[in-house]
Design a protein that fits this description.
254 residues; alpha/beta; 10 helices; 8 strands; Enoyl-CoA_hydra/iso; ClpP/crotonase-like_dom_sf
């Protein structure tokens, strides 16, 4: 099986695929825990499109590097998001990410190998979600930057954890640990830290062994409601996020 060109195309995405068709996608920065940047924001939806078109991919595992899934973000690298044209680029990319994750013609297993306080929604839309005992969850960037969390984090947390819990988490900027996430129904399993990725790959191999049409249509069946919410509410949420981003230059004015 030839190595696809996209395996070496994206700076913050490392790929590997086993003989059973399980594709491993690992976020990273220079081989260590990822610092999410504007480039990552641009590349991830593009990579998902290439993954979806590669028929050798039978299941996908997404995880982080080291002891963090994703907990650092380089805000300035996102560009002048207070300008309409710059925000439209961000809005377009952000709207595509969750839609493409949910519409992949294969099951997705998310593995939280540590803190997931930036774009935790990437894990929550996975079909199976495994958490290391060291995982934590929350939304640090939006409260910190002072912009509305409208990029899908609000939709996914409400759908998975419920309205009251989503409001508390996204208003306060607080974090929950893996056991609390399990109690909330956010994760499928909590496992020992050193075995989290192994468990995720094990599950993915079982799913990859199922018939191709079953994998694709079961994916659609189980995600129909979440897909509707994403298509309906993420573009609106990102418009509101853009308004608060446009307000950033004025927040300290009297």
């Amino acid at each position: 099986m030839a190595t696809p060109e996209y395996f070496d195309k994206y700076d913050n995405l490392a790929f590997g695929r086993d003989s059973e068709g399980v594709l491993l996608l690992r976020f990273h920065t220079n081989g260590g825990p990822v610092v999410f940047t504007g480039r990552t924001h641009q590349d991830f939806p593009a990579a998902l499109e290439e993954i979806s078109l590669d028929r050798d991919n039978k299941a996908l595992v997404i995880t982080g590097t080291g002891d963090a899934f994703m907990d650092q973000i380089d805000g300035p690298s996102l560009g002048e998001i207070f300008k309409p044209a710059a925000w439209e680029k961000t809005r377009s990319e952000g709207s595509k990410v969750l839609q493409r994750l949910i519409e992949l013609p294969m099951p997705v297993v998310g593995v939280a190998n540590g803190p997931a306080t930036v774009h935790s929604e990437y894990l929550l839309v996975a079909d199976i979600h495994i958490a290391s005992e060291r995982a934590t969850y929350g939304d640090s960037p939006h409260p910190e930057f002072g912009i509305t969390g409208g990029d899908g984090v609000q939709v996914v947390w409400e759908e998975i954890a419920g309205t009251a819990r989503a409001k508390w988490l996204l208003w306060t900027g607080e974090q929950i640990d893996a056991q609390t996430a399990l109690q909330w129904g956010v994760v499928s399993e909590v496992v020992a830290h050193d075995h989290a990725l192994e468990r995720g790959v094990q599950i993915a191999r079982g799913l990859a062994a199922k018939p191709a049409l079953y994998r694709a249509l079961q994916k659609q069946t189980l995600n129909a409601n979440l897909r509707r919410r994403i298509l309906q509410d993420v573009p609106f949420g990102m418009a509101l996020e853009g308004l608060t981003a446009a307000d950033l230059p004025y927040q300290n004015q009297t």
